[in-house]
């Protein structure tokens, strides 16, 4: 059974754990490391979640141990990953979700501490490989890929959509805007932040800012390197985002042909990753969606035969966390 540890008990760390419980996977979570959190805090925020509701089951904490449905999970509070007891605990995979150890030097500390693989739940700096499930995860090599970045939630939405367009029609160039729920990186009230726009109260304004999703797209789909750019608009909602992609295609298409390509992919190569909706839904309806991207077919549009617009919804928390669990299971199937 794959032994897993989580480093960082923030939004993604907690939801990866929840997603594994929901999935009924046989993953063995043996430790949670959170530098500033006590056992009661870890227990409480696993049990109660303002966005995703209460986690069912028996959950309690005692001193340095979390009990979940009878399973004992060690609680740690270590600031330096190199000092974590991964070797003693027999940890196979560490989910690195602090946001602090995204570069090669920081992530390597987990390997030095004794684990076999590190999954960075963010865009990484010089990882062994950047993978987006359903798009380029087939290139995973157990022998050489020990530090794995799963890119961002937005890249995980954009990449499957772009892959369908690129494979079916070719993309000449494009621009994406993610209308994104605010995140913990922003401020509840005006405060200090290196990005002066993100320094403003998140729940009061639409906040334009940067996104690395378009640049990361060229890493997972090399044929699109240098052909895409994008921005993010952070909006006053707690969860669920939408990618607005406008692309010039290499061949003339119709709205029906584009939607048909997405429908076909959702039933074949991107099953469980991409879905298509024909319902008149809004963002809250996608809360809890496990898909990386849900194409809103009603808003697919084509102008002049080659300029296409696609809207794709994604639960930027839950959908991404489900992909992390998928990747851990993939590593287990590959023998780590």
The major beta sheet can be summarized as: 9 strands, mixed
What is the share of helical residues?
25-40%
Number of domains: 2
The CATH architecture of the largest domain is 2-Layer Sandwich
CATH topology of the largest domain: Dihydrodipicolinate Reductase, domain 2
Give the CA-based shape: globular
- Average pLDDT, to the nearest integer? 97
Write down the CATH class of the largest domain: Alpha Beta
CATH superfamily of the largest domain: Dihydrodipicolinate Reductase, domain 2
SS strand fraction: 25-35%
Low-confidence spans:
none
Strand order of the largest sheet: 3-4-5-2-1-6-7-9-8
What separation lies between the terminal Cα atoms? 11 Å
Q: How many β-strand runs? A: 17
Give the SSE order as H and E letters: EHEHEEEHEHEEEHEEHEEHEEEEH
Instruction: Indicate the structural class.
Output: alpha/beta
Feature tags:
Rossmann fold; 2 domains; single chain; NADP binding; EC 1.2.1.59; 8 helices; globular; oxidoreductase; 8-stranded mixed beta sheet; 9-stranded mixed beta sheet; alpha/beta; Dihydrodipicolinate Reductase, domain 2; 336 residues; glyceraldehyde-3-phosphate dehydrogenase (NAD(P)(+)) (phosphorylating)
